C-alpha cells in the first residue's frame, strides 16, 4: 500500500474557468523521499492543501496511510506533520507554549500549565529538538520577539514532535541560514532512517531535491514527469567533458575523427551520453592541459524542462 496515493485528482474553484488541478495521479511509497516541483500557478499548493486536509477536492481519490483525506481527516492528521510555507504560530505565547499545546492536542501528553510540570519525556524531546535547530536560548521567549528565521525553526520542532509517518515540507528552509539548513536536513535524514518516515517536499531550492527517490513535476494542473532525478537528468541533459590543449587544432581534429560532437567556447566542450568519460579520454593522443567532467544537476534538468515547455521558474 502506498503511503500517499493520488488518483485522478481534480480541483475546480468556484468561478474559475478551468480546474486548478486536472486529473493529477501519483503514489509515494512508505519511507520514500518525494519531491513535488513546478512553476508558480502549476497546481502545487492546491494539491498539497488537499493532501493535508485543509482544502476539499472536486473529485478523485486521495489517501494518506490508507485513510481517505476527507472521510477520515482526523486519522490523516494524526499521521502527518506539516511545515507550512506561511507561519501558523500564536505570537502571544512563548515558543515552548506553542510546542506544548501542539503536543497535547495530538494526544502525546496530558496538558500541564508549565514546562517544569510536564513529563520528562516531553521536556527531553523539546530540548533535544531545540538544540538540533538552534533555538534552545529562545525557547521560553514570546514568539512575537523572535526573528522570522527563529520562528521557522520553532515550526520545524512543532511538526516533528509526534514523529509523524508522513512529513510534508512546504519550503521548509525558507528564512534559514546555511548552517541551520544543513542541520535540519541532517536531522530529517536521520528521522527517515530511524523511523521510516515518508517525506513529501516542495521547495524553491531545487538542490534540496537532488537526493530524493522520486521527483514529480506538475505543470498547468497536470503531472508532466514523475521519475528518479537520474532518469530526469538523462532524459533532458547530457554529461559534458571540458577539455583543452596547447594543440587545440590537433585535439578538435581527433574529436572529429572519432565522430564526437564538440563545440569551442572558452574551452572545448564534448557532450556525451552513450560512452563513458574514460572511453573518450583513452582514445585521445593529444596532450591535455585541462580535463573536467560536468555532471548535470537536478536544477539544470528542471530549468531545461521549463525552458522546453515555456514554464515560468518556480
Descriptive account of the structure:
The chain has 314 residues and is α/β, with parallel strands linked by helices. The protein is built from 10 helices and 14 strands. It has 2 domains: 4-231, Rossmann fold; 238-295, Alpha-Beta Plaits (2-Layer Sandwich), CATH 3.30.70. A 6-stranded mixed beta sheet has the order 6-7-8-3-9-10. A 4-stranded antiparallel beta sheet has the order 2-1-4-5, with helices on one face. Strands 12-13-11-14 form a 4-stranded antiparallel beta sheet. Strand 9 (214-219) and strand 10 form a beta hairpin. The chain is globular, with a radius of gyration of 24 Å. 33% of the residues are buried. The model has no long low-confidence stretch (mean pLDDT 89). This is ATP-binding cassette domain-containing protein.
Give the tags:
Rossmann fold; four-stranded antiparallel beta sheet; alpha/beta; Alpha-Beta Plaits
List the helices and strands and how they pair.
Elements: E1 4-11, E2 21-28, E3 33-37, H1 44-51, E4 59-64, E5 67-68, H2 73-79, E6 80-83, H3 95-105, H4 120-133, H5 148-160, E7 166-170, H6 178-195, E8 198-202, E9 214-219, E10 222-227, H7 229-236, E11 239-244, H8 248-257, E12 263-264, E13 268-272, H9 277-282, E14 290-294, H10 298-309
Parallel strand pairs: 3-8, 3-9, 6-7, 7-8
Antiparallel strand pairs: 1-2, 1-4, 4-5, 9-10, 11-13, 11-14, 12-13
Helix pairs in contact: 3-5, 4-5, 7-10
